[in-house]
Description:
With 208 residues, the protein is an alpha/beta fold.
Amino acid sequence: xxxxxxxxxxxQLNDPYVTEARKQGLRxxxxxxxxxxxxxxxxxxxGLKVVDLGAAPGSWTQIAVERVRxxxxxxxxxxxxxxxxEPVGDAIMLRLDICDPDAPARLIEALGGPADVVMSDMAAAxxxxxxxxxxxxxxxxxxxxxxxxxxxxxGGTLVMKAFAGGAHGELMTAINRNxxxxxxxxxxxxxPESPETYIVATGFRGAP
Length: 208
């Protein structure tokens, strides 16, 4: 194995969130980021309509299903990704690219109306070139924000991963125009060395 592979393996083996995810049957440690955000901000409640953008491997979808309870018949969780995903019980799974022109309409149709919560843990595949990786991931953030502006109910919530850098300020300016309250948070489950933060925007003001 390469040195970078050894570092990754060592980090995985010594990460308590990885261990706990396995114990609980969660698909990745990322589940704990959403758990911590939801415990703090109360984003997910039974009966809500929730979209999980870039959902693979499905850990955020698992938490959404657990907390929204679509099995009870009122809440809906729709998970989309460009990759094939193993089903998550009671979630609607779509293999779909959020950048496709027909994606918003298909998502709203699957939800049965506008979303109450749009979630995104999307990040572009890493190239190793920091500026390129930042811009590619921020482009996905812009897509998530654009869908939220199209597909959220008034008063709805957007929660998404973003990377600090040049394009981050422009995105925050745009989000602040559309939501009553916008926070930038780094949950404890986010690795300290990671540049990721999470934007939690509540009180959607309606489509611009």
